[in-house]
Amino acid sequence: QVQLVESGGGLVQAGGSLRLSCAASGRTFSSYAMGWFRQAPGKEREVVAAIMWSGGSTYYADSVKGRFTISRDHAKNTVYLQMNSLKPEDTAVYYCAAGRTYYVVRNDPDYWGQGTQVTVSS
Questions:
Q1: b/e per residue, 57-73, with b = 16+ CB within 10 A?
Q2: Please, how many CA atoms are within 13 Å of residue 48, restricted to the half-sphere of its CB?
Q3: What backbone phi and psi angles, to 5 degrees, belong to 110?
Q4: Phi, psi (5° rounding) for residue 105?
Q5: What are the CA-CA distances from residue 32 to residues 13, 27, 64, 71 (Å)?
Q6: What is the dihedral of CA 40, 114, 47, 100, to 10 degrees?
Q7: Could you tell me which of 79, 87, 97, 119 has the C-alpha nearest to residue 37?
Q8: Who wins on pLDDT, 31 or 13?
Q9: Stretch 78-86: mean pLDDT, rounded?
Q10: Residue 98 has pLDDT above 80, yes or no
Q11: DSSP letters spanning 62-122
Q12: Measured between alpha carbons, how far is 117 from 119 in angstroms, rounded to an integer?
């Protein structure tokens, strides 16, 4: 079992930055691929970014490439999502996810966090 707790969401103006954190506990964090998803009102949940357990490979949705960066700190059992140049369309609830493989975390994660709200004002 893996428990995931997100933090760092909030209200920011367009063009601003936020860093989301996801603290993991439970089973061996370092063996899981990690990801961030988001869900805007009236829309389906979508994958935003993912990172392999080793950190050697990352994935980004086209809508966030060049603006968002995913990273992980094994010593702190934490994964981060640095979000720069935020746009109003980035407004959503952001969820942290863990998966036993890189493919699983991007498509059907094994574990989810409770979500954190990000609101970008224009």
A1: eebbbeebeeebbbebe
A2: 28
A3: -80, -30
A4: -65, -30
A5: 33, 9, 23, 13
A6: -170
A7: 97
A8: 13
A9: 97
A10: yes
A11: TTTTTTEEEEEETTTTEEEEEE-S--GGG-EEEEEEEESSHHHHHHS-SEE---EEEEEE-
A12: 6
**Residue 1 to residue 111: CA distance in whole angstroms:** 8
Q: What six digits make up the tokens of 49?
A: 């970014």
Q: Within 10 Å of residue 95's Cβ, how many Cβ atoms?
A: 23
Query: Has residue 61 got a pLDDT over 90?
Result: yes
- Determine the Cα–Cα distance for residues 24 and 100; give it in Å rounded to an integer: 14
pLDDT value for 27: 67
* Residue 44: φ, ψ to 5°: -75, 155
Tokens representing residue 22 in the block: 């996801």
Are 3 and 114 in contact, with CB atoms under 8 Å apart? Answer: no
Number of Cβ within 10 Å of residue 74's Cβ equals 13
44 contacts: CB under 8 Å, gap ≥ 6: none
Interatomic CA distance for residues 61 and 65, integer angstroms: 6
